[in-house]
Design a protein that fits this description.
Elements: H1 3-25, H2 34-48, H3 65-68, E1 73-74, H4 82-86, E2 96-101, E3 104-105, E4 119-123, H5 124-127, H6 131-141, H7 151-159, E5 163-168, E6 178-184, E7 191-193, E8 196-201, E9 206-215, E10 222-232, E11 237-244, E12 251-260, E13 265-272, E14 277-286, E15 292-301, E16 306-315, E17 321-330, E18 335-344, E19 351-361, E20 367-376, E21 381-390, H8 394-402, H9 407-423, H10 429-444
Parallel strand pairs: 1-7, 2-6, 5-8, 6-9, 7-10, 8-10, 9-11, 10-12, 11-13, 12-14, 13-15, 14-16, 15-17, 16-18, 17-19, 18-20, 19-21
Antiparallel strand pairs: 2-3, 4-5
Length: 446
């Protein structure tokens, strides 16, 4: 490690240390509670670890220095009217809404009391006081995921103000999703927030969680460090949406780590339209036969945006299937990264694993780095991967122009159809409609 890197890490850890001790002092009612030890243990691990650099293989395409050099504060609540807030919802989607404004829970904008039958939600602080749930939380924390040197998991655990545990009842099929709306309204100082969720799909159940990220100020600079831990029991299905529409100066790092039991399904739906530097780590471990895992990702980068998707699926047992589809569009000086790793272990016979990443690069200064990886140690499997990087088809543009569209209109329609191939796999029509309309808006600003 260079002297400059050491100095950077030292300075970063100094403000983290100061902020954590200040944070601890403000936890008056929680001192002596399990949540205090939960955070302190993570803080100690955080202080002992180093931040990744581009010399680390898993982080070679993403420089986190611009993120960690900022001396952030903790987010502060800000008043926002119901009408202002409603514009960030998905019109027509009947959901339990949890409003997090500048990293702080807003109880007036949330409707947490309308939790549907078959689903329970509690804070991590409350769950840690239950011996069984505490054991399950700690078991999930033991999962390392697919990305090495992931100090951001410890940072999240140390600083999360509003961590939640969501547990479904056995065999409950819940149609009403839980929607966490994370909204930034501040611009006068840089702050960070740490959304944290533990999702437990009990045997035979099915439910959906939507997390969306927005800003009322497109110039605001802030850092959102997200951790999601998911356990899907036998025959259960968890739908997990992460929809990111941050400001043009925002940073976001997301870790989603899932474990699946036999005959279960985990579906991860991801969209990135905003943010300056965005890094998504998604990993799933198969722990029983008959499992299905689906990853759907769409991204649209312009100006100087950097969007990095890292996926990892561990086929550790036989008779399982995974399917990944990621599509992105890059223009101006944007950079996209896709590193998808599928590991098929020696005992994982009869595995079906499919992975596809396709990107449109629409300027000479945009860059796409694609690295699909298959590591196969079993012989009776069906596995394939593909990565394509191209431009818009001139014949298709010509055809659409011959049907009356302008040159710009034809190009936008083709780009929307390209992204829509992923979005149309999403489960809720209001979410599909809103995302496609936001894609339209962003494409029109080119």
């Amino acid at each position: 490690m260079s002297i400059i890197t050491k100095d950077r890490d030292r300075n970063t850890k100094e403000w983290i240390k100061t902020l954590f001790h200040s944070y601890e002092e403000g936890l008056n009612g929680q001192k002596g509670q399990p949540i205090t030890a939960f955070r302190k243990n993570a803080f100690d691990l955080l202080m002992a670890e180093e931040f990744p650099t581009r010399r680390d293989e898993d982080w070679k395409y993403t420089n986190v220095s611009p993120i960690i050099k900022e001396a952030y504060t903790l987010g502060k609540s800000s008043k926002i009217s119901q009408s202002e807030f409603d514009q960030f919802l998905f019109e027509g989607l009947d959901a339990v809404v949890i409003a997090i404004v500048n990293g702080v829970l807003d109880t007036e904008l949330s409707n947490m009391k309308s939790m549907p039958d078959g689903l329970k939600m509690m804070t991590v602080a409350d769950a840690l006081q239950n011996e069984e749930l505490a054991g399950r939380i700690n078991h999930l924390l033991d999962q390392k995921g697919g990305t090495a040197k992931n100090v951001f998991l410890r940072m999240n655990r140390a600083f999360a103000q509003h961590g939640y545990v969501i547990v479904s009842d056995k065999n409950a099929v819940v149609d009403k999703p839980i929607h966490f709306v994370h909204l930034n309204t501040r611009s006068e100082d840089s702050y960070f927030s740490h959304p944290q969720m533990f999702m437990i799909g009990t045997k035979g159940s099915e439910f959906s969680v939507v997390e969306s990220y927005h800003s009322t100020n497109n110039d605001a600079k802030y850092f959102t460090n997200v951790s999601n831990y998911i356990e899907v029991e036998d025959n259960a299905h968890v739908h997990h949406y992460r929809l990111q529409f941050e400001s043009k100066n925002a940073f976001q790092i997301t870790n989603s780590i899932a474990i699946q039991a036999r005959d279960s399904i985990y579906s991860n739906y991801s969209v990135d339209l905003g943010g300056k530097i965005v890094r998504n780590n998604i990993s799933t471990e198969h722990m029983g036969p008959g499992i299905n895992t689906y990853y759907y990702g769409a991204y649209l980068g312009m100006d100087n945006q950097h969007i990095d998707n890292q996926t990892f699926i561990d086929h550790a047992v036989p008779h399982c299937e995974s399917n990944e589809l990621y599509k992105g569009i890059l223009s101006d000086k944007a950079r996209g990264v896709f590193n998808g790793k599928v590991l098929v272990r020696q005992d994982a016979q009869k595995t079906n694993a499919y992975q596809q990443n396709a990107s449109l690069v629409l300027s000479d200064t945009a860059v796409m780095d694609a690295k699909p990886q298959l590591e196969i140690f079993a012989d009776d499997v069906k596995c394939s991967h593909g990565a394509t990087i191209g431009q818009l088809d001139n014949e298709s543009i010509f055809y659409l122009k011959s049907r009356g569209l302008s040159d710009e209109g034809a190009k936008n329609l083709l780009q929307k159809a390209f992204i829509g191939d992923v979005i149309l796999n999403f489960r809720y029509e209001p979410i599909i409609d809103k995302i496609l309309s936001m894609v339209d808006v962003k494409l029109s600003k080119k």
